[in-house]
Every structure is written in C-alpha cells, then in structure tokens.
Amino acid sequence: MRPYQERAMNNIFIEGKARSGLIVLPCGAGKTLVGILVTAKIKRNTIIICDIDLAVQQWKKEILRWCEIDKRRVITVRGKEKDPWD
Length: 86
Prior knowledge:
Blueprint: H1 3-12, E1 13-14, E2 17-18, H2 31-42, H3 53-66, E3 77-78, E4 81-82
Antiparallel strand pairs: 1-2, 3-4
C-alpha cells in the first residue's frame, strides 16, 4: 500500500470501527484496492455500485485477484441483467 492509500483507509476507521465508506482519490490512485482492503478488514457482505460496465468488471476482477473468495460469491448485476458468468 502506498502512504496516501493507507491514509485514505485510516480515514474510514475511527477507533477501529468503519465510520465512512467514501474514498476520494484521483484516477489511477488505487481506489479499487483501498476499497477491497477495507471490505476485507470489516469482513461483511458489501455492495459496490458502479456507473459503467467496465468498472463493474474491474471490481470483480480485482476482488478475485486480491481475495481468497469463491468466485460464485462475487455477483454482478447490471440493470435488469444478472452477470451471465455467475
């Protein structure tokens, strides 16, 4: 983790508890990785909302890359259509 990513992650937690889920970093600064690390730390089911299909697929790919999770547990939904790969 880069120092600015660590600061962004630490800003989410106050006294060890997640207080805010808003991650603000510029393009290419690792928001996806920070989000995945936060999700892994809180150990809860998580909903990630994206505005474009490319971002949906990026999140799924990176979650499967960095986490030891059964790929069937990472479900994507676009509009009224469920991911055909799930």
